[in-house]
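Structure tokens please, single chain.
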Amino acid sequence: MSGTVTVSDRSGVFRQWWANGRLKSEGLFREDLREGTWTFWDVAGRKCSEGNYQRGVRRGEWTVYEAADDTPHLVWYVDGHAIPNRDVLLARLAQKLQSGDRDARFDAVEALGQLGAAAAPILLASLSKDDAPLSLGALRALVEIGADARSALSAIATLSSTSDRDLHRESLVALFIIDEPNRNRRFRDLLLESDLSDALASRAWHVRLGAFRESVVTPLERALEDANVEVRLRALDVLAGMFDSEYETLFDMDYPPESFRERFIKLLEKAQRDKEPSIHRAAKEMLEIRRRMQAELQWFLANPVVG
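Here you go.
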């Protein structure tokens, strides 16, 4: 096994190996739970399956490869349970959304977010300014579906004009994730939603944006080039939030050269070159922390503990 691993808390990149030296599994752990994309191989080195975990539970679309001829086929998971027939489940969840049982409707929205593009038209029925809580759930489900929910863009854009702040913001997040061709512009809109005079609230919002990881890297690069210093300050705060919350992952030496970690470091280097003193200083400080970490790691590798 390799990665940032302790007995009680696995965190960061994780790889497990068969006894013959072939890779068995690869993915990320956060707080001792599998998170994000994981890939599994059999003892002969053949890829068996690949898909997404959330808080240690399989969710959404998984690709499973047949042992006989490596033919891929899709398996759908809802809250860790494999779904034998997605179409049947979609029909049942659509009926739940029409029921008078409010809890059942919320459960249906949560499940639909794990069932891909085919669920997007069903979720549209739950977008309404008159029911903000259910609409928030539907928007988060559409965010989980991602770019495959493009059919919902028009309805989400309409909903974003609401006076309800939470619903407005969640609509902007959904537009950012789903509307891939316009992500740079939509990310700028998201940044300007924060109020820098309220440090705690703005950091919480920026941490939310940073949680989208790879999706925000290119938009952050563009934001750090923005002529408006207020946009650049907000982009830097997103970077700072990511730096704090992704500490182990960002500096795991097992990451490949073109990894998220490398792209993140380039963003810090770009920010360090900013002429705005506060942006320059903050980026420089984060890069110095990274350099100290690397020096400590190299020292420990050169001086292993014996016994």
